Amino acid sequence: MEIFEKEINARGLSLKPDFLASKMDAIATQSVSVNDILNCILSRDLRAVATSKFSNLNVSSMREFSEPVLFQVISVLNIAQPSAKQMVPGLRPALLQLKLTDGQNKYVAIALEDIPKLSVSTAPGTKLLLKCCIIRKGKFLLSKENAQVLGGQVRELMEQWKTQKDLRERKRACAADQEDPPPVFTDFEPTQKCSQSCNQVNSTIPKACKPETSRPKTGKPSVRKATPSKKPSMTKKKDINDASKQAKGHHVKSTDKKSRKAQCESQKTGKKEEKERSNLSKPKRFPRGSKKTDSSTL
Question: How far apart are CA 83 and CA 271, in angstroms?
Fold first, then answer.
């Protein structure tokens, strides 16, 4: 019996005592070999048959394990694809994430490369044998050298997996049917109402926005008139201040001119009055030959 247990452990299994007790008579008579028991286990749920080899070890602190261990696949996802396409087989790029169990505990493994017989379509219950596997942050890193798919089908797990797969496909089909399809293309046929509405729209457009009609080209090249560029608001304020200053200066100059004119006029009137006064004070003189002599005096 001890030899049989060692052979089973060398194959990566740690069987429960209840299962061994049921096979005790066949093992004692050597009517059942180790290969027969392994083939029987491939078609059984590992959670009902085996126990964990890592029950006394903390996997998160481990770096690797050298002994072979038999695991059972729970699910396989392609985490390199969106969640809606993680169960679709044949998509690239592919990075498979596996959920495994050794009969007692659950583990996570990542396939770093393509492994034969391992894909998204791998059904739950499939047995996977790992040898000398590297562990990083509690996750098993799988490769062709340390992973081997042994196969096996568990009828109960297979039926559940198929029903879930059918439900997912139906949901996708229903979601595709519910999406609104694009409208059917129809040729444009202008009608009277359409032409009237177009005319109304054109009438509301300002003249500056309407495109210029094509003009016949002449011999002389067309020269565009330079439009004065609008100055920013700061220059406008400066111009207004300068204009106000100029207006004030002009007003001062005009008042100075008026005062000067008034002074000149007052001086002229004063000179005239002085001349008139001097003329009145002087005796009148007659020119020679102009004075008449009376005949009586002669």
Answer: 116
DSSP 8-class letter at 177: H
Q: Are 8 and 15 in contact (CB under 8 A)?
A: yes
Distances (CA, A) of 30 to 39, 60, 120: 16, 40, 40
Domain residue ranges of the chain, discontinuous segments joined by +? 2-48, 59-173
Q: For 188-212, what is each residue's pLDDT tens digit? A: 776 655 666 666 656 665 555 445 5
CA distance 68 to 7: 12
Cα angle: 99, vertex 4, 52; to 5 degrees: 25
CA angle 167, 109, 11 (to 5 degrees): 105
Domain 59-173 matching CATH 2.40.50.770: the answer reads: yes
Cα separation, 91 vs 84, in Å, equals 12
Kindly report, residue by residue over 70-118, the tens digit of the pLDDT. 999 999 999 988 877 877 788 888 899 999 998 888 999 999 999 999 9
Going by C-beta distance under 8 Å and a sequence separation of 6 or more, which residues neighbour residue 256?
none
First to last CA, the chain: 204
pTM of the model: 0.54
CA distance 84 to 77: 11
Cα separation, 251 vs 257, in Å, equals: 10
Q: Which residues contact 217 (CB under 8 A, 6 or more apart)?
A: none
